[in-house]
Design brief:
Elements (H helix, E strand, L loop, with lengths): L8 E7 L2 H6 L3 E2 L4 E2 L1 H18 L7 E7 L6 E7 L19
Antiparallel strand pairs: 1-5, 2-3, 4-5
């Protein structure tokens, strides 16, 4: 459905050092235990804050996935507007070689 409406999908990865997660009692580096419920709640608050600040809180669908397959636990985030509300813009980036 989203592609028929020419919706853009935004994808990001959020990675926070494990020592910071330990300080906030989300991760225990000794036992390698992750409090997934606390991490999900924190992510939900952050996503609601982000989509609200971007003016998209009522127009987006988002999903996340927690990955523990690297040294630092990280969260993949995907956001899409099923009915696009954003104006399309063309961005041109000039790349300089050399130097």
């Amino acid at each position: 459905m989203e592609q028929k409406n020419q919706s853009v999908i935004w994808q990001s990865v959020v990675s926070i050092r494990n020592d910071i997660r330990a300080e906030s009692n989300v991760y225990n580096p000794k036992t390698r235990q992750l409090d997934e419920a606390k991490l999900r709640d924190t992510t939900r608050v952050a996503m609601n804050d982000f989509t609200n600040k971007m003016g998209m809180i009522h127009s987006v669908i988002w999903s996340t996935a927690i990955h523990c397959n690297t040294d630092n636990i990280h969260i993949h985030v995907a956001i899409v507007e099923p009915q696009p509300t954003r104006e399309w813009k063309r961005v041109t980036v000039e790349v300089k070689h050399g130097g």
